[in-house]
Amino acid sequence: MKVKVLCRNPDDYVRETNKDLPRVPRNYDPSLHPFEVPREYTRALNATKLERVFAKPFLAALEGHRDGVNCMAKHPKSLSTVLSGACDGEVKIWNLTTRKCTRTVQAHEGFVRGMCVRFCGTSFLTVGDDKTVKQWKMESPGYGEKEEPINTVLGKTVFTGVDHHWRDAVFATCGQQVDIWDEQRTCPMRSYTWGVDSISGVRFNPIETQILGSCAADRSIVLYDLRKPTPLKKASPTLTAPLRMILEMRTNALCWNPMEAFIFTAANENYKLYTYDMRYMDAPVIVHMDHVSAVLDVDYSPTGKEFVTASFDKSIRIYPSSNGHSREVYHTKRMQHVTCVRWSSDNKYILCGSDEMNIRIWKANASEKLSLLSPRERATNNYNQKVKEKFQHHPQIRRIARHRHLPKSIYNQISEQRIMREARRKKDVNRRKHSKEGAVPIVPEKKKHVVAVLE
Amino acid sequence: MSPSKPPKRKVKRYYEEEGEKKPSQEQKKKKEDKMVVNERTSREPWKKKNHQKKDVMSGAEDPFPGLPPVPEDQLSKYERARKAEEEMHTFRSVKSHLRKEESKVQNALSRAAKHDLLLPEEAGFLEGDEGEDTSTITQQDIADVVDITSASKYFTLSLNQFGPYRMNYSRNGRHLLLAGQRGHVASMDWHTKKLLCEMNVMETVNDVRWLHSHTMFAVAQKKWLYIYDNLGVELHCIKKFNDVLRMEFLPYHFLLATCSSTGFLQYLDVSVGKEIAATCVKAGRLNVMCQNPYNAVIHLGHHNGTVSLWSPTIKEPLVKMLCHNGAIRALSIDKTGMYMASSGTDRKMTIYDLRTYRPLQSCLLPLGAGSLCHSQRGLLAAGVGNVVQVYKDTHLSAPRSPYMCLSVKAPIHGLQFCPYEDVLGAGEANFDGLECNPYETKKQRQEWEVKALLEKIQPELITLDPTQLGEVDNITMEQKRKEQVERMGFDPYEKTRFAPRRKQKGRSSTGNVLKRKKKVAIQEKRAEIKKSIEERETAKSNSDATEVQQGPRSTLDRFKK
Predict the structure, then answer these.
(1) Cβ atoms < 10 Å from Cβ of A156
(2) What residue spans carry the Polar residues bias annotation (chain B) (predicted)?
(3) Fewest CB within a 10 Å sphere: which of A312, B46, B405, B431?
(4) Least CA distance to B191: which residue of chain A?
(5) CB-nearest partner of A3 from B120, B142, B454
(6) Rounded to whole angstroms, what are the CA distances from B455 to A34, A135, B54, B161, B273?
């Protein structure tokens, strides 16, 4: 007779002293872990619910402006600094860690139309309704010194926007035409005109730094190449300069993707945003919907995976850059029309300035814990993230993850617009049904809004 | 995505490893050769970048490049039910994403398989000498041979006053609960032989069951269901549950399933104390019940020889199978949920395959088994009269001679294998500390309790196939359409019926309308016929063109086809 009996030595399974950690022997045999899928599903459900429970995105409001905030600028070198310009010509520099205003400058008479910080972070530029471009030092003036700009340039017309080159001492302003300025000179190096009256915004490409995009009041988006002095026909296969594209309605702002040089997103008056590939301008890559009023500003996250938009409908939305619908909407009772929005350089916060004189700080990820995470917390977070992703299409989980409370006005407008869209679709279908085959073609949403592309 | 599913692959279990394959020496040799060499680069393509710069300055080469190989059968033990499709008809980005995920899964599998080496314990066994039948070896013989600690596990309690007794081991196998029919209830830690509580409820006790941990147990008494704590203090008397005969606790759902002499199957959620479901089974007195540990479906045995399978949210049985010619006496299902053993008053013991619901093996026991029980590693114990017979590999061959035998003084009323107690290869040797831990501390138990409650599975997820929840739901077009019709109240795909316009001057007489209708009705048919004729003709003309006339026609050509 041969006998072998398992005899466990309790010392192998019980901790030696009370101060030790309890021992946890593992066996990964799936038959010892039954109901794997239902348990994971339950975990995913719990994680999704908790995410909604902890979704408290609003952090603080920066108060101090005496008129609506019109523009904002991030500091390229300091995470805690942000600049804002108001409708009364005042520029404020804020410290985000203390949430206090560190400096106030009466920069212009009338609106501060645009502002940007030099790439090195030592000075910033503002343009205003008083037809001037002013360059200011970032440091506050010393004791006894007067608050004065380093340079002031008086232009012929009103400037509506400004942006600085990402490497050189060159900046661009827009107004009646797009002007390229050398910092050392008082007259523009170059001016681009295309017979348009008012250009509302101009942005340099952060990667292909010689490329410049602008949006005008005549519904067009124009791209320029600084290396081409005059309007030229398409020269190189990749870069076209200038290239003009006319949409159905006017574009309010545009922003380049900081990771993909050829991608930019335009915020349009028709409640939508269009992400374009610079190389193929016939149709946008993606149309981003969900806003119920004009979109006023857009800014990409530093990873280029997401962007945030400010809208006239008193809300801001966050879109994944590859998705047509927003993943998040932020609003508060007191926030009015949001005029400008910025995504902080550490990818954690969103700043928005609105008509009722406040700048608000939001979390980019609504349910994220901001303090330092312990390793176990981080492991749990990662696990939950994965499980949520795995079960995201299950109806119950999707319902919870997608649910957002909306103000009544937005909610009603959404349903109203849905009805309108449905009616339009129905009418189209009927028209197609009762006319000759091919007479009423099916136009995809992407192609609907581009009127013309000119070179 | 294409609606076709890849063939379902079930997890290989201990049975199949040992018995079904039965690899001969030659095959074994071959298998050793068939080791899966998983080089890091091929297994983890998403990590490729980090492992390219492996050149050593000295130029020395690694004699054993890549990761150590993992035997294929070891890998298959960890494989989950379904693998991702290789050929997918979907977007390229989705395809690459799925491929990447699949490779990660494979990597995790091989890692888990490699972990097998680190398992501290090995299963036990009992082997007879040449010509010696293992069933003739008595318990005393074994106890004499093995070491003292193992021998101390062999114990007898003589309880001759309040019997017959029902008993239940706690999930981690540490605690034992006893209940005599005449009211004696006792719980003990059987490792240390310490008595936790003992009392007499002064009432008939039908069944007894531990709840999720050893701090609470349920006792089915003459009239109501009672819950006691580990000190024997009555916590609840649940009057919604009356005349309960048998109970089963579903640990992952926190459900206590009971069946009563009034013919009701009831579920109690012990985490919130609510009755989840009460189903009238309509099969008379219910006194045979067992749970399927793989999918938490409850099996009930009936007097007419049928076994019915129940889930709490469905009022009809999921499956009904006729198992015996007489009434069912006992049921038991193994851990993998593949095999069910049943015994009836026709004195037969039959093993059923629960994937096909067909009998696999059957044998006639002289007295018939009054109680059955599977161990964690698949041994089957049958209480036959006053003898306990333990069978091995019952799903492979008809149980003829038992693996072990034990005869006691009185007829057997209840039996159970102690979980995680590997007495000669019955229980699982290596437990998982996060699932059930026989050596857990109080703190560990409390922590586990919180975690377990958080991931309590909802009762509506009890289905025959628990893996279904993680799979793509390929609803057929028809079903989708049916649902849409139900939702919208009309069939959007239905062709609008032709309603002839009303015409003046007597042209809308009944006959005329009918004629016009008929014209439209056959129009489509005609178009279809026309099309098919055209196709046929074009095919014919094509074939005529290609066909080569072979020689002169013969009279026998007419028989050609």
Answers:
(1) 9
(2) 540-553
(3) B46
(4) A10
(5) B142
(6) 13, 60, 44, 43, 17
